[in-house]
Specification:
With 412 residues, the protein is α/β, with parallel strands linked by helices. The chain folds into 2 domains: 315 residues, Alkaline Phosphatase, subunit A (3-Layer(aba) Sandwich); 51 residues. Helix content is 33%, strand content 15%. Strand 13 and strand 14 form a beta hairpin.
Length: 412
């Protein structure tokens, strides 16, 4: 090829990006979107994280220092400096509000997008989508455990999350029984013999599907490798933080990169009824420092690997904490105001809503948890009118009636 021909050819490539949308319409496929939920179990204090009130009285603002984020009218904990720098890449929802002050009921509402019901447990979003993919990896993984209402709900047990167990922050972390053993094969043979004697078809079929999934995962070296944190370099592991939350977030990145559609990272210990200032800033590591390291590293890692346009990160909790410190220096359950952070796939950076001067309730743009759920569903590209069915055929809407996405937080 002559020099002129090469130049003409290379110049022609400059128009390729304009052809990509047309290519997609003609049948090209983009990588499926994935979701990472960082669940701060117990009730994250909005006042001590993403909705600080530095001008409020001491019994409202608390003893922890705050800092101005690089966003208009946004103050955050001074113990979250890395996250503060990255907030302009996120959608910060500061006016999420509801009335469920019980842990279980609040968790059900935030994780499933539906009000708790005495007759029906709704599925978490991870149990709904991505399960039709032909992959040895589970569609839904929980690290290291799953809250009660992060499961399959009324859907089949095969939609429940694969739970890693253990502590990813430990040097000896590994997923138990990930590699098949001779003993495991013998157990399977015995199970099959017992089934032949007395078989409950419905239970056995569901269980056999789970067993097949486990066998497929154990037999696939590439799938197993997605759970191997030792494959990551020491510098990156240090950046995430050598603790449970940091290494759990790193494992979540490895899993979505490998093809898992939903990863729920559960970080316990956010229920601070006493000395919240001490609880958030002391420990091994302190809660706020661990959150700052882990989330900042996760957002940067996804961007550097060009995964941020297909992976949505959600940071949420079952409710916020009381605006006024209690006599023990803690904050109690407070569902009338909380913050939720969204970043990545389908999300437009913005700040939506604000609370009053005390952080007690929304001063503008109240957002229901059902609306947050609808926003995530929409950002992931799921149909807004999707209908699920219970085991007896009852139709149930994926998005609760009356819920609407927070359109300000969605990319066009």
């Amino acid at each position: 090829m002559s020099m002129l021909d090469r130049r003409t050819f290379l110049a022609g490539l400059g128009g390729l990006p304009m052809l990509l949308p047309a290519f997609a319409r003609l049948g090209g496929k983009r990588a499926p979107r994935a979701l990472i939920v960082v669940w701060l179990d117990g009730g994250m204090s909005h006042l001590d994280t993403f909705d600080a009130k530095p001008e409020a009285s001491i019994e409202i603002r608390g003893d922890l220092p705050t800092m101005r984020a690089p966003l208009d009218d946004v103050f955050v904990s001074a113990h979250l400096p890395r996250l503060a720098e990255r907030l302009p890449r996120c959608a910060l929802l500061r006016s999420v509000t509801h009335g469920e002050g019980n842990h279980d009921r609040g968790a059900h509402l935030l994780l499933t997008g539906h009000r708790p019901s005495p007759v029906l447990v709704h599925p978490a979003l991870g149990a709904v989508f991505g399960h039709d993919a032909a992959s040895a990896l589970p569609a839904y993984v929980a690290i290291p455990s799953a809250p009660e209402y992060a499961g399959a709900g009324f859907l089949a047990a095969t939609r429940a999350p694969f739970v890693t167990g253990g502590d990813p922050g430990r040097p000896d972390f590994s997923v138990r029984d990930l590699v098949g053993t001779v003993r495991g094969q013998r157990v399977q043979e015995l199970r099959e013999r017992l089934d032949a004697l007395d078989r409950d078809a419905g239970v056995a079929v569901a269980r056999d599907r789970l067993v097949r999934r486990a066998d497929d995962l154990s037999a696939d070296p590439a799938a197993r490798a997605s759970f191997d944190l030792t494959a990551e370099g020491p510098e990156l592991r240090e950046r995430y933080g050598r603790h449970r939350l940091g290494q759990s977030c790193l494992l979540a990145r490895r899993l979505v990169e490998g093809g898992v559609r939903t990863v729920l990272v559960a970080d316990t210990g956010w229920d601070h009824h006493q000395r919240i200032d001490t609880a958030l800033t002391y420990g091994f590591p302190p809660k706020l420092r661990a959150l700052d390291e882990a989330l900042a590293a996760l957002l940067d890692d996804l961007r550097q690997r060009e995964l941020d346009d297909r992976v949505l990160v959600c940071v949420a909790s079952e409710f916020g904490r009381t605006p006024r410190l209690n006599p023990a220096g803690g904050r109690d359950h407070w569902p009338r105001a909380q913050s939720v952070l969204l970043c990545g796939a389908g999300i437009k950076p913005c700040v939506v809503g604000r609370t009053d001067a005390r952080g007690e309730e929304p001063a503008e743009r109240p957002i229901a948890p059902e609306d947050v759920f609808a926003t995530i569903v929409t950002a992931l590209g799921l149909p807004a009118d999707q209908v699920l069915h219970t085991s007896d055929g009852r139709p149930v809407r994926l998005i609760a009636a009356g819920a609407a996405p927070v359109f300000e937080a969605l990319r066009a």
